[in-house]
Model the fold of this input.
Amino acid sequence: MALELFNTLSGKIEPLFASDGRALRFYCCGPTVYDYGHIGNFRTFLHVDALRRTARLNGLGLHHVMNITDVDDKIIRNAAAAGQPIGEYCAKYERAFFEDMDALGIERPEQIARATENIDGMVSLIERLAAQDIAYKAEDGSWYFRIARFPGYGKLSKKDLHGMEDGARVDLDEYEKDAARDFALWKAAKPGEASWETPLGPGRPGWHIECSAMAMKYLGESFDLHAGGEDLMFPHHENEIAQSEAASHKPFARHWFHVRFLLVEGKKMSKSEGNFFTLRDLLLKGYRASAIRFLLLSVPYRHQLNFTFDGLTESTNAVDRLRTFNDRIRTGNWPDAAPADATLTNLIRKGDTDFTAALSNDLNTAEARAAIFDVLRAVNTAADHSRLTRFDAEETLALLNKFDSIFAVLEDRDAELTRTALAWAESEGRLDEADPSLLTTLSFSDADIDALVAERTLAKTQRNFARADAIRNELLEKGILLEDSKDGVRWKRK
Ligand code: AMP
Ligand code: ZN
Done:
């Protein structure tokens, strides 16, 4: 079944395809690197990651471009407050952003484009618009886009723009929500602010022009898909369409993908509400990166996700169940006998079909997840009753592999990622924000634990149960749980 996806522009679910027959050419608005990324940002990047991975599963090649906004009002303000040049200020947060992407298992786009490295392309795009009198220069030296000259304005966000003030302008990066006005393409230099000497006059680019110029540079004037969070639909994406199509006279992106906002405990996330979390905040509270990834992916992108700590605990347990199941099926010694009947094989294959169909149906990650848990329950029951054959075990492992090519939570990198977060907190003088129990647990390396587990096994074979129990308790105090099973001892961090 071909991958179908809701298209904000047409308002319909439509097949997603590569117009050149090879690679899906798509652009995703990247971060403004003025601070650490929060879980709302990562909800968007995670669903773009799921889209990439699902497109690949459907046989599409990928050419994914993401910009880094490394000059804007907030950056200029914060860099000035920190007494740093904007380049130095942004480098720190760009590095942190990619570390967080890696921690969350988000694949890197094929192409990263920094705004400050693409000023020429923005200037020539504005010149193309100026040549048609669609861009005009204001008294202060800034350039604006004349939206009255683009009749399609509003087609993405479906806004009714009657009553729009003709010629009214806006030049802030932080917009009044509903204002449809001529918007800044180029901002005249102000004293003390970063600026570039260009044929347009000294200044810096507006935010919207950055994405139009870089998308068209790397993907061509018309390309397959454009993505971002729902807040970007208006005015950012509307303005991108206006600038690009007014210059090229060709359709810009064919398909538009918008991820709905995340709420935290039922409220809009905000620093003043005290419900604002970066990935690093959650790692320092002792939550695992894999559980955060799984939770943020488990609610389909067009639904509102209400992030709660109960939900995060549930997600931690779900990832644990999947890992334990994967280990059990992988390491078990299943008999080679032919299955007694095809019931279980059919069930596993149905799980596979349901998984793929759910993702192909507008990236329904919740149904895809449910399909895997159906198989987990059935196969566990068969294994408990000694009815699992090698054949069905292998079918299950193939399905788990497919599942993990999208959800990517089976490999356990959690302790290592938490350790990295602690090292970062220490270097920033923020170790006091870490949950104290983490410090004890993580002072224990995997090798230390393995050695103690081996010592306990030896103590048991020597019938030294006092020592065996003492080791179990010592590990428990450090937050490490032991599970004795037929196949040996497994341990995990609480
Ligand atoms: P920014 O760094 O603010 O430009 O945002 C980067 C990306 O995160 C954009 O695609 C935003 O639309 C998206 N985003 C911001 N806040 C949220 C949120 N609460 N939920 C989902 N996506 C968000
Ligand atoms: Zn953008």
Observations:
- DSSP finds 16 helices and 17 strands in the chain.
- The two ends are 41 Å apart (CA to CA).
- The longest strand covers residues 61-68.
- Confidence is low (pLDDT under 50) at residues 174-179.
